Each structure stands twice: as structure tokens, then as C-alpha cells.
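MOLECULE: protein
FOLLOWS: sequence and fold
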Amino acid sequence: MECFICKKHRGELQTDGVSIYEDDFVYVGHIDNNGKPGYLGHLMIDLKRHAPTLGDLNQEEAAAFGRIMARVSKALMVTEGAEHIYSLVSGNSVPHLHMHIVPRYPGTPEQYWGPMSVREWSDAPIGGNREVVELCERVRSYLENNDAQ
């Protein structure tokens, strides 16, 4: 089976939202919800080179990955009001390195704390593609205007 992330990077798949950031090593966008409403702010950092795990990063890729993790997390805190950022690499279903960046918003009850639990809260911010695009544009604008923290 061909890699979903590689196909996305070649432009063979349409995914939710718009590009937030891209350089020679990484791509950042919103998680794809197959056209259904989803948890707003759940971003993905993809390594552009097809490699399965964090342990496969070379030094340049590791530096780029670390920098964008910090910058995107800060952007979600500033533009979306996130009070905490979860990050996780699973790799169970797609063997191409990608990191989930998941914000937790103020007021989220403690029983919903966790990168995959926050979306289960009845008041979690859920939106369709229009809201996802708007969020992507706010985060991208923040990154463009605050290029080196």
C-alpha cells in the first residue's frame, strides 16, 4: 500500500485546511477529517522524507522538526488561546514520521485531558473545513510575523 503522507506531499490527495508551514524538511497542516467536522487546532507535522520514526531523523531534519514543534505550539497558544499543547508520535497506522500537535483549551474538564481525549468533551471546539482553513491562516500568519522566537 502506498504511503498516505507521501501521496499528500505529491499533491495526489486533497486534505482539510491549507498549508501552515513548509520547508525542505517538514510540512505542517491540520489533521484531515475526511471532510467531516473535527477538533480545531489538531495539527500535523510531517517529515517530508519518507522515514518511519524519530530515530530515523538526520541532524538537519531533527533541528527543523524541533524548531517547528516549538513555533507551532506557541502559535496555537497565542492565536487560539490554547492553555496546553500535547504532542505525540504513534506511527502505528502510517509508517511515515508525523507528529500530532493537539491543543487543550481553557475550561476543558480534567477527565478529558490527553491528546486524544480532548475532542470527547461536549464543548470541545469542533469545526468544518471553513473553520479549519481560518485557523490554519491565523497560525500561518503568526509564524510569518514571528519568524524566530
About this structure: The longest helix spans residues 59-80. The mean pLDDT is 94.
